[in-house]
Automatic annotation (TrEMBL):
PANTHER family linked to this entry: LIGHT-INDEPENDENT PROTOCHLOROPHYLLIDE REDUCTASE SUBUNIT B
SUPFAM superfamilies to which the protein is assigned, alphabetical: Helical backbone' metal receptor (SSF53807)
Domain Nitrogenase/oxidoreductase component: 19-433
Pfam families: Oxidored_nitro
Protein family membership: Belongs to the NifD/NifK/NifE/NifN family.
Coiled-coil stretches noted in the UniProt entry, renumbered to this chain: none
Name the UniProt record assigns to this protein: Nitrogenase iron-molybdenum cofactor biosynthesis protein NifN
Purpose of the protein: This protein may play a role in the biosynthesis of the prosthetic group of nitrogenase (FeMo cofactor).
Domain of life: Bacteria
Organism of provenance: Rhodoplanes tepidamans (Rhodoplanes cryptolactis)
Compositionally biased residues, Basic and acidic residues: 442-459
Pathway: Cofactor biosynthesis; Fe-Mo cofactor biosynthesis
Length: 465
C-alpha cells in the first residue's frame, strides 16, 4: 500500500494539475450539440480554451458568463441568465453544461436556486435545451474530479428510469460505457470496436471520439458536432450493464444504478494484459458469445510484445507525474513490464486509488517536486505531460508525454494506451525511448576495479591485498 504525502510549499512551481472546470468542460465536449459554459470571469475561460486548443488543435466551443466587477460584488444571476438566453438564441444547443469557477464559488452564490428560477422564468425560451450545473471551483481538486462530477451530472440530469427493473425489461445488447478523462480518441474507438465485436451496442458517455477526433465539418457549427446524443443518454436506464473505467467515474455508475437499476462494473485500469482479459471476459459474459478471433489474435500480439520489450524495461527507473487514476494505470503498466517506479507525483490526494499505486510513496505536488524526486532517484525516464519538458532538459532524462496537455507533439489523441492493441503500442513506444537513450558501456566502465582507490602508501588496494 502506497503512502500518500503532500508537499508544504507557499506556492506551486510549474503546476502539474489542470483545473476542475476544465475537466468538466472536457466531459461536456463529448456530448453532441453541447456547449460548456464557465460561470465566472473571461480570464477563467481563456486559460482553459488555450489549453484545449493547443492540445486538441481543434475549434473548441466554450463560453463564459463574463462576470465583471459589479457582478462579482452584487451576484452573477443576471449574467448567468443572459448567457443562457444568448447561447440558446445564437447556437441552439441541445445541452448547456454550466461549470462554476473559483470567482463565484468563493462568493458563495446559490447556483441551484438561480438556475431553477431561470428555468421557470424562461421555460419557453429555453425549451429543447437541457441545462446542467457542476460545482467545480479551481481552488480544490483537478481535472479528474471535475470530469467525474460532470459525468455524474449527465447521468443525474438526463437519464430516465427504465420501465421496469427485470432483465426482461432491459435492452439485452445495450451497454453503457463511462470512459475516464485520460482515455484518448483512439482509446475510445478501441473500446467501441471491442464491445461491438461481441454484438453489443455501446453507449459511451462522454464520447470525445466523435467530437475531438480531428474531422472537419463541411460547415460552421457553433456547438460540438459529434459525441453522444442527449437522447441516447436519456435512454441509458434500460441498459443491460454499465462499465466504468476509472474510480473518478464510479459515482456516475452508482447514480445510473440508482436511477435505472443498471448493474455496473468498475475497472481501475484497462492498461494491462490482466485488465484487458477481465474486460473481454465480462463482455463475453454479458453477450453470451465466445471471444472473437480478432481479439485472441490481438492478445497473442501483446504477449509477443511483452516478451520482446521486457529486456528494455528490466531495471529501468521511471518517474511518473499524473492524475490519480492515470498514475495508477501508468505505474501498473511500467511495474508489470519490469521497470521500477521510483518517483510518483499526483495532483490531489482525495482518490482512493492512490493507496493501490504500486510504489512506496505518492507525493501530492507539482512538477518542481517531480523534478526534484526524479533527480534524486536517478531516473531513466520521465512520464508526464508537455509541461515536464523543462525538467527533462535540465535532468538530461528523456520524456514520454502522456495525459493533458500535450501541445509540442502531434497526434496525441490518436495514440492507443489500453486493451490489447493499446498496451502493445505503449510497450513499443516506451521501449523505443529506452533504446534511443540507453547508456552505452565502455571498457573503462566495465572494469571491475575502476572504483577502487589507492591506499595511504600509494599502492593500489589490489596490490595491497
Amino acid at each position: 500500500m502506497a503512502v500518500v504525502t503532500a508537499t508544504q510549499k507557499a506556492a506551486s512551481v510549474n503546476p502539474l494539475k489542470s483545473s476542475q472546470p476544465l475537466g468538466a468542460a472536457l466531459a461536456f465536449l463529448g456530448v453532441a450539440e453541447a456547449m460548456p459554459l464557465f460561470h465566472g470571469s473571461q480570464g477563467c475561460t481563456s486559460f482553459a480554451l488555450v489549453l484545449f486548443v493547443r492540445h486538441f488543435k481543434e475549434t473548441i466551443p466554450l463560453q463564459t458568463t463574463a462576470m465583471d466587477e459589479v457582478a462579482t460584488i452584487l451576484g452573477g444571476a443576471d449574467h448567468l441568465e443572459e448567457a443562457l438566453l444568448n447561447l440558446k438564441n445564437r447556437t441552439r444547443p441541445k445541452l448547456i453544461g454550466v461549470c462554476t469557477t473559483a470567482l463565484v464559488e468563493t462568493r458563495g452564490e446559490d447556483f441551484w436556486g438561480d438556475i431553477t428560477l431561470i428555468k421557470q422564468k424562461r421555460a419557453q425560451e429555453l425549451a429543447g435545451t437541457d441545462v446542467l450545473l457542476v460545482h467545480t471551483p479551481e481552488f480544490e481538486g483537478a481535472i479528474e474530479e471535475g470530469y467525474g462530477k460532470a459525468v455524474a451530472a449527465l447521468v443525474d440530469g438526463l437519464v430516465q428510469p427504465a420501465a421496469g427493473t427485470d432483465a426482461a425489461d432491459r435492452s439485452a445488447s445495450k451497454v453503457a460505457i463511462l470512459p475516464g478523462w485520460h482515455h484518448t480518441v483512439a482509446d475510445i474507438d478501441l473500446i467501441r470496436d471491442t464491445v461491438e465485436s461481441f454484438g453489443l451496442e455501446p453507449v459511451i458517455v462522454p464520447d470525445i471520439s466523435g467530437s475531438l477526433d480531428g474531422t472537419v465539418p463541411g460547415r460552421w457549427i457553433p456547438t460540438t458536432y459529434g459525441g453522444t446524443p442527449v437522447e441516447a443518454i436519456r435512454g441509458l436506464g434500460d441498459a443491460a450493464h454499465c462499465i466504468a473505467i476509472g474510480r473518478h467515474v464510479r459515482k456516475a455508475a452508482e447514480r445510473l444504478s440508482a436511477i435505472g437499476g443498471v448493474p455496473f462494473t468498475v475497472f481501475d485500469t484497462l492498461g494491462s494484459l490482466e485488465a484487458a482479459d477481465r474486460f473481454v471476459a465480462l463482455l463475453a459474459t454479458i453477450s453470451g458469445r465466445p471471444v472473437p478471433a480478432k481479439l485472441r489474435r490481438g492478445r497473442s500480439r501483446l504477449q509477443d510484445a511483452m516478451l520482446d520489450g521486457h529486456f528494455h524495461f528490466g531495471g529501468r527507473r521511471v518517474a511518473i507525474a499524473a492524475e490519480p487514476d492515470h498514475l495508477y494505470q501508468l505505474a501498473t503498466f511500467f511495474g508489470g513490464m519490469g521497470a521500477e517506479v521510483v518517483a510518483a507525483v499526483t495532483t490531489t490526494g482525495h482518490s482512493s486509488i492512490l493507496e493501490a499505486v504500486p510504489v512506496e510513496t505518492v507525493t501530492v505536488g507539482d512538477l518542481d517536486d517531480f523534478e526534484t524526486l526524479a533527480g534524486q532517484a536517478g531516473c531513466d525516464l520521465l512520464v508526464t505531460h508537455s509541461h515536464g519538458r523543462q525538467a527533462s532538459e535540465r535532468l538530461g532524462v528523456p520524456l514520454m508525454r502522456v495525459g493533458f496537455p500535450i501541445f509540442d507533439r502531434l497526434g496525441s489523441q490518436h495514440r492507443r494506451t489500453i486493451l490489447y492493441d493499446g498496451v502493445r503500442d505503449q510497450i513499443i513506444e516506451a521501449a523505443n525511448i529506452f533504446q534511443a537513450h540507453q547508456r552505452l558501456h565502455t571498457p573503462e566502465s566495465l572494469d571491475p576495479f575502476r572504483d577502487r582507490g589507492e591506499t595511504h602508501d600509494g599502492h593500489s588496494q589490489v596490490a595491497h591485498h
